[in-house]
Specification:
Helix 2 crosses helix 7. The longest helix has 12 residues. The two termini are 33 Å apart. The chain has a six-stranded mixed β-sheet with strand order 10-11-12-9-3-13, with helices on both faces. The chain has a six-stranded antiparallel barrel with strand order 14-17-16-15-18-19. It has a five-stranded antiparallel β-sheet with strand order 5-6-7-4-8. Among the domains are: 140 residues, 2-Layer Sandwich (Gyrase A, domain 2), CATH 3.30.1360; 75 residues, Aminomethyltransferase beta-barrel domains (Elongation Factor Tu (Ef-tu), domain 3, Beta Barrel). The chain is α+β, with helices and mostly antiparallel strands. The protein has eight helices and 19 strands.
């Protein structure tokens, strides 16, 4: 079991630790509900140092990224970030990821922790086509970096105390290299996985503890709390954000997952493009939908979804009860013919069939927060 540079801090704070993606990670501190509400109303800090970071360098960096991902990275300018997917030839998703453009010859890819080795191997298969060499100009730097996510409507205001650069004026999905809390060359991006606004901070692993302590001190007057992965999951689910291993996997295409908006057929050939065009032409057989339960209960991953005629039409991928609204909701794949907003469905929970309605996520809107996808 691997540890992040902050594991000892989490343990000293009394976090409930559990294995996640090969790491010992904090699941909760004061409780998922309390931590969730803190992020929605104030701010919280997550240790996400288990995420992966790949550098892509040189004149062929952009053509390489264009080839292996489905979004159009050519629209990025310096200091911009983009959500995309790393693709299989059959049109399915290797992983979802972020692309950061530093300049025309320097990009950073941020991938999911559980997929670091798989992603690097899959992308490396195409590197030679562009004259890139693994370890030279396509570099897995995941072990070198720690990452904190400071999320919530008060996050940028609080973090401004630690940085001379203007943070609150930054647009969503932009980033800067700054001196932050006295630490040079911190990558600060207005990205996140909560829909509550805020930023993500990348530093060298040796500087992680100093960064954590500075962030906690700066946020003290604003009500900051450390937040575990449990609340991270309920927060992302409220926004209808996909989670790899649930809504996305090696058998799922971005079109099925409702990610047509990041699938740019207008760009030159990319891995999986031909298969996706064929799927689009033939028509989708299944689609990812959101739903809200009308009956009391919780829909969990794997629970069967039934039509009003009591025919099984799909399965739940994620489900929870909102700590804020107390609404029970979730997402799942259903037959395309059943994927209509407003349609009544049923979720089989043990020996009961709970009524639900298909809705369009997000399930929660953060009022007054500009930085929401």
């Amino acid at each position: 079991m691997q540890a992040t540079p902050l594991t000892s801090i989490h343990e000293s704070l009394g976090a409930r630790m559990a294995p996640f993606a090969g790491y010992s990670m904090p699941i909760e501190y004061t409780g998922i509900s309390d931590e969730h509400i803190c992020v929605r109303h104030k701010l919280g800090v997550f240790d996400v140092s288990h995420m992966g970071e790949f550098w892509v360098l040189g004149k062929q960096a952009l053509p390489f990224i264009q080839h292996i991902t489905c979004n159009d990275a050519a629209v990025l300018t310096n200091g911009k970030a983009q959500y995309s997917c790393l693709m299989h030839k059959d049109g399915c998703v290797v992983d979802d990821l972020l692309v950061y453009r530093f300049n025309e010859e320097k990009y950073l890819l941020v991938v999911n922790a559980a997929n670091i080795d798989k992603d690097f191997a899959a992308a490396s298969q195409h590197a030679a086509l562009f004259g890139l060499t693994a370890g030279v100009d396509f570099i897995n730097a995941s072990a070198d970096y720690a990452q904190l996510a400071v999320q919530g409507p008060l996050a940028l205001q609080a973090m401004q105390k630690l940085c001379a650069e203007s943070l609150e004026s930054m647009e969503y999905y932009t980033f800067k290299e700054v001196t932050f809390a006295g630490i040079k060359d911190v990558i600060l991006s207005t990205t996140g996985y909560t829909g509550a606004g805020g930023c993500e901070l990348y530093v060298r692993s040796a500087q992680a503890a100093a960064l954590w302590n500075a962030v906690m001190e700066a946020g003290k007057d604003f009500g900051i709390q450390p937040i575990g992965l449990g609340a991270r999951d309920t927060l992302r689910l409220e926004m209808g954000y996909c989670l790899y291993g649930h809504e996305l996997d090696d058998r799922t295409t971005p079109l099925e997952a409702g990610l047509g908006w990041i699938t740019k057929f207008s760009k030159n050939d990319f891995v999986g493009k031909e298969a996706l065009l064929a799927q689009q032409a033939a028509g989708l057989q299944r689609k990812l939908v959101g739903f809200v339960l009308g009956d009391r209960g919780v829909a969990r991953a794997g629970y069967e979804i039934y039509s009003a005629g009591m025919e099984q039409v799909g399965a739940v991928t994620s489900g929870t009860v909102s700590p804020l609204t107390k609404m029970s909701f979730g997402m799942g794949y259903v037959q395309a013919i059943s994927a209509t907003v407003g349609k009544k469905i049923f979720i089989k929970v043990r020996d009961k069939y709970l009524s639900a309605e298909i809705v369009k996520p997000p399930f929660y809107i953060s009022r007054g927060v500009k930085n929401v996808r």
